[in-house]
Amino acid sequence: MITYTGKTVFNGIAIGKIAVFKKKDKQVKRHHIEDTDKEWMRFNKAKDAAIEQLKNLYDKAVAEVGSDGAAIFEVHQMMLEDMDYLDSVKNIIDTQSVNAEYAVAVTADNFYHIFASMEDAYMKERAADVKDISERVLTILSGEVSDNVLTKEPSIILADDLAPSETVQLDKSKVLAFVTVHGSTNSHTAILARTMNIPALINVLMEDYEELNGKLAIVDGFTGTLYIDPDQSTYENMKEKQEDDRKKKELLKELKDKENITIDGQRIDLFANIGSTGDLASVIQNDAGGIGLFRSEFLYLEKDHYPTEEEQFKAYKMVAENMAGKKVIIRTLDIGADKQVDYFNLEREENPAMGYRAIRICLDRTEIFKTQLRALLRASAYGNLAVMYPMIISLEEVLEVKKIVEEVKRELDAEKLPYKNIEQGIMIETPGAALISDILAQEVDFFSIGTNDLTQYTLAIDRQNTKLEKHYDPHHPAILRFIKMIADNAHQAGIWVGICGELAADSSLTETFLKMKIDELSVSPSYIYPLRKKIRETDVSKL
Amino acid sequence: MKQFNYTIKDELGLHARPAGLLVKKTGSFKSNIQITKNDKSADGKRILGIMSLGIKQNDEITVTVEGEDENEAALELKEFFKNNL
């Protein structure tokens, strides 16, 4: 048995024979051409055919991995139609009276070296792109039909490197895994492998890999290991690991795209809590129905200055667009207490959890608040955004916030900037707000119950004090009564109510929440599938 | 002639996808469009030239627009950079 290690691009276990993917070595010969105009036409015909192929590849990739992953093939088309590229080819044919193949090869080589010499890893990848498009034209010029049939049986594809077009062209039912000697995690092939859920390793350094063709191998994407000719015990271990993984993925697949509905037909939304735009991938992977709590603090915490309207707008717009019409609830700035930012220059407090924080700062320093609201409203034009305000304790606060929102809307109208009339909700996380939730419900579009703060304020337990941990009981009847009361008041006023604190993910309370007719639970993305399973197994009428 | 500066915020820089979008945008104007970074310039309608500038995050670029629709082009391109890069 020989063992190699590399970098994992997508995990999973694959067991099978190796099929070495060898690029056809295209020896381009230079020869003299008499009629250069005719040669230029010959090139143009090949180029047009290549663009046609790329259009088809684009459509294939859109179907397999979505438009983001497919975008590279659109860029490839543009590269082939680039005037610098075409001028270079024409110039070489005309001035040197040479064949189109030679002109393409030289042009490709020149651009390849421009990109390959760049220090930026991402731009270096473009060298591979130029090579890829040029090889496509060369294949067409040579009159060969490129065949994608690599093997008859499903195999582990082993290659020096794979161009995106090569990856997409492979018949996926014949691919167990990808292993490449080179490549980077930034490469489009890596991105495609990830979106296609195929185990893939890159940077597996090995020599003479071509001799491995046909050998039995195992790819362990969890550890980044490639085993060639595995021994009996490795084989059995991996077989077992593969089976476990398969079962896990099957359960997920079984639950993917399924509704969050109980046996007796009660629906509840399962949304995700996120702390930055970096969490988006896991929101989508875990099939969240929306984002129930987008903590906007990260925009402030990661900077040494107040984030500008543009910086915020870009982040909100990105999330709105990526969630493609699903609801995204952005919570306005909740800074203070345990979350401190230097440039806010907040004074030290004796009791920060009950101090100068969240909406209290925003209503005081309205310029900061308005900047955030402007960014948020502008981004609302690009998706399905909603906004919620933290730490509300009174009706006056709600009215004041709404007044500021109206002012901001008038500003945007005057500047002719588009926005939507988004839903506005409040966090119910103080006993004060809970007790007047019937009054507050008249003024807002939804409630989101923040159980962490609600518990600490109701039970007078400091969350930061580890000595008090045993007293911090979010199942305390007082908390559950509060939640019931808030839900009833919301429903009476005809608005919806969600829970976004840690309690939402507590599956021992899922039945209780269903009985209270809670409309939405917002949890860390990894809790969505387990909760969906729990909900689908519950019969509320029998509780 | 219209000119403006812009500092790239996207962490990958002016990478393949936005470069493609940019060329689509610039191609819709009649004006000549130049993108300049550190004395190196590229035609704003040519994707390989733009990418060969190797524009990274925090790089400041200058966009120069000249032609009959320069006002409109400069405005729309400014907006494009803000929204995409």
From TrEMBL, chain A:
GO cellular component: cytoplasm
Domain PEP-utilising enzyme C-terminal: 250-539
GO molecular function: kinase activity; metal ion binding; phosphoenolpyruvate-protein phosphotransferase activity
Catalytic activity, EC: 2.7.3.9
Active site: 188 (tele-phosphohistidine intermediate), 500 (proton donor)
Binding site for phosphoenolpyruvate: 295, 331, 452-453, 463
Cofactor: Mg(2+)
Domain Phosphotransferase system enzyme I N-terminal intervals: 5-126
Enzyme class: transferase
Keywords recorded for this protein, A-Z: Cytoplasm, Kinase, Magnesium, Metal-binding, Phosphotransferase system, Sugar transport, Transferase, Transport
Positions bound to Mg(2+): 429, 453
Primary localization: cytoplasm
GO biological process, one term: phosphoenolpyruvate-dependent sugar phosphotransferase system
Subcellular location: Cytoplasm
Coiled-coil ranges (or none): none
Reactions listed under catalytic activity: L-histidyl-[protein] + phosphoenolpyruvate = N(pros)-phospho-L-histidyl-[protein] + pyruvate
Domain called PEP-utilising enzyme mobile: residue spans: 152-224
PANTHER family hit by this protein: PHOSPHOENOLPYRUVATE-PROTEIN PHOSPHOTRANSFERASE (PTHR46244:SF3)
NCBIfam families found in the cross-reference section: PTS_I_fam (TIGR01417)
Known function: General (non sugar-specific) component of the phosphoenolpyruvate-dependent sugar phosphotransferase system (sugar PTS). This major carbohydrate active-transport system catalyzes the phosphorylation of incoming sugar substrates concomitantly with their translocation across the cell membrane. Enzyme I transfers the phosphoryl group from phosphoenolpyruvate (PEP) to the phosphoryl carrier protein (HPr).
Family: Belongs to the PEP-utilizing enzyme family.
Protein name: Phosphoenolpyruvate-protein phosphotransferase
Species for this entry: Anaerocolumna aminovalerica
Automatic annotation (TrEMBL), chain B:
Top-rank lineage group of the source organism: Bacteria
GO cellular component: cytoplasm
Compartments it resides in: Cytoplasm
Record has Cytoplasm as a keyword: yes
Keywords, sorted A to Z: Cytoplasm, Phosphotransferase system
Chief location bin: cytoplasm
GO biological process, one term: phosphoenolpyruvate-dependent sugar phosphotransferase system
InterPro entries hit by this protein: HPr, HPr-like, HPr-like_sf
Ranges for domain HPr: 1-85
Protein's UniProt keywords contain Cell membrane: no
Matches recorded under PANTHER family: PHOSPHOCARRIER PROTEIN HPR, PHOSPHOCARRIER PROTEIN NPR
NCBIfam families per the UniProt record, alphabetical: PTS_HPr_family (TIGR01003)
This protein's name: Phosphocarrier protein
Organism: Anaerocolumna aminovalerica
